[in-house]
Amino acid sequence: MQAKEVSVGIADLAIYAPERVLTAGEISKTSGIPEAVLIEKFGLKEKRISHPDEHVTEMCISAARPLVERKGASEIDAVIYFGSHWKDYLVWQAAPKIQYALGIEGFAIETINVSAGAPVALRVAADMLRAESRLRSILIVAASKESYLLDYSDDASRFMFNFGDGAVAALLSRDHDENRVLSTSILTDGSFADHVRVPGGGSVAPTSQDTVEQGLHQLGLHDGYEMKRRLDPITLKNFIEVTRECVEESGLSIDDIDFLLPIHFKRSLHDHVLTELGLTDEQSIYLDSFGHMSAVDPLFALTLARDSGKLKDGDNIVLLAAGTGYTWAASLVTWGKPA
Fold this sequence. Notes:
- By secondary structure, this protein is α/β, with parallel strands linked by helices.
- The protein has helices spanning 24-31, 35-40, 56-71, 95-101, 117-131, 209-213, 224-249, 267-277, 297-307; strands at 8-16, 20-23, 46-49, 78-81, 107-110, 137-144, 166-174, 180-188, 196-197, 220-221, 259-262, 316-323, 327-334.
- Strands 1-7-6-4-5 form a 5-stranded mixed sheet, sandwiched between helices.
- The protein is globular and about 60 Å long.
């Protein structure tokens, strides 16, 4: 007798956005890039910036606390942190601190895949819930504070000027028939592994007076021309490939996609992806008022889409992401109650 397939769904969502707003006009004055270019080409009207003393753990806790209060800490079996590498401390896990602050028992782990993190975390959490009957609900949380790693005077890093701060929390539950997490596709090209990094502070260049004086603790781009030359021809193709694989794994096709929730990237690429998938602006959320919050983006956008009433029962939603390294990933969620 064939075992019944275990359904896993998103039972709840919440976001956190810091109060401070940094506008395109302010970034223009610092970077020298015209405000119109930032808005029209970068797709950035404004973004949020966290307080200097507000770290990823605090932002995750702020996002997750309403979910925990609604569900009950005793009903949550695990916490997965999937946010920024740049946490409160180096060589340190944020997940246990978040778990303890929220009063959750069980275990706490991390799956950190930079900007590709949301689909990966959805896959890990959903697979764990399907595989282990003792698990009932898993809280996945992420935050980004990457704005503090930017040097707006470094023109080579301008493609990262959209980095903003924020957090998201999602509760995934076993045998939850609404907002079902169906499938995930992941593709990695490791030949891009060394292009984007913080040069100082790791084992290659341990923190020293020299690394500080040389400015090696800012997020930087190594051989950006070569990265762009090789990345531009394959980026759109790989986004579409992981999307197609993801929906086909669930027995659907690209024509069945109703809504797209991608990470924030430049406006032209966003439009190209929509065109390739046969979707309109109304079938997507573009985070031009928040910027790029690393792994936070797709689930943050899903929360905005839910709260604005843009989603309806039965919508097939693709959460689309890519992270330096370079990894492309997509997850399929069918929203609402099953037909």
